[in-house]
């Protein structure tokens, strides 16, 4: 007879668990026979002792088995999906999903909410009046068949073990360990039913992975997991040392996404999204040049697809284009001349969270209108007195907050040229 305490001890001592032991543990946790306190101890043992590739695969598949697996076979073509490990100002999905769909490649994607300093795609979409993130499986599939794209919330019946385990890891300081991150991400992606998966693994100040080495290890683990279950999988390691693009905050990021889809966005983030789209299209067997993809992004085809997506899920297209209703807009001016050397993503993510744009705990209410829009990014020249950023808030910012913002803008004499995509792992 198996006992949870024996499995905890085995892992604590650095031994490998068998496939049957991992299945028994996960099934027991979901049905309530393995209590939270024992699962916490097991997660901490994994944190310190790690897991082999075989154990990580077994954990992933045991988690998949705790919920339904979505069958997308009714949708013609190679279904693609994309996942980001989280970041600050990450509005990529809002643009990438309609852009890829505009080439006739179906995108059936389940997204998540933001927590802490990282933003969630669902929260950004819910800043659009009427947008419904909850859809039945039938409606989800029907919408992809009809318009080629759907972005919804994760079904409650999908990977029950992950929902439970993630909440537990969040309060026991066992989030940032590779086998548990990899199994959490890939169990959801496998259960969501897509044929091919693009993984955006963020690295740097504003990401879970702080070093390139850890990002590579996580990417290699997730790509191997995807391939083992017959899903074409590619990981892209991307920079999250500064916020992505210009805006942080739900409504502000939707407006930036629209700007990019009108061909009026920053060149760096526009190019980055085209590169990701090229990889996603390749996974679906569609070869396109960056020029062809860029043309679709800026000539209105991607925006047309985004509007179709919003309308199909109940969103108000007039509200889609409405500016932020934040009561106060504060301009942050440069205190000296030089080059922007650093805009720490974590600090600005936390700052936006304090404005109401992010959650400290899952039950926190969001203010969709608040946030930050950067006029200058790392590597750009700035003159003393020039506007670096605008802060959107519901009340006048106190001196302490303004000082804190200024302190985090690093201006120096060195012109750094950041690179969005650091490495591709396939």
From TrEMBL:
It catalyses: uridine + phosphate = alpha-D-ribose 1-phosphate + uracil; 2'-deoxyuridine + phosphate = 2-deoxy-alpha-D-ribose 1-phosphate + uracil; thymidine + phosphate = 2-deoxy-alpha-D-ribose 1-phosphate + thymine. Its cofactor is K(+). One of its GO terms (biological process) is pyrimidine nucleobase metabolic process. The keyword Glycosyltransferase applies. Its EC number is 2.4.2.2. Keywords: Glycosyltransferase, Metal-binding, Transferase. One of its GO terms (cellular component) is cytosol. The keyword Transmembrane does not apply. One of its GO terms (molecular function) is metal ion binding. Residues 339-412 form the Pyrimidine nucleoside phosphorylase C-terminal domain. It is an enzyme of class 2 (transferase). PROSITE patterns: THYMID_PHOSPHORYLASE. InterPro entries: Glycosyl_Trfase_fam3, Glycosyl_Trfase_fam3_N_dom, Glycosyl_Trfase_fam3_N_dom_sf, Nuc_phospho_transferase, PYNP-like_C_sf, PYNP_C, Pyrmidine_PPas_bac/euk, Pyrmidine_PPase_CS. It comes from the Bacteria. Catalyzes phosphorolysis of the pyrimidine nucleosides uridine, thymidine and 2'-deoxyuridine with the formation of the corresponding pyrimidine base and ribose-1-phosphate. Homodimer. PANTHER family: THYMIDINE PHOSPHORYLASE. Belongs to the thymidine/pyrimidine-nucleoside phosphorylase family. This is Pyrimidine-nucleoside phosphorylase. It comes from Streptococcus henryi.
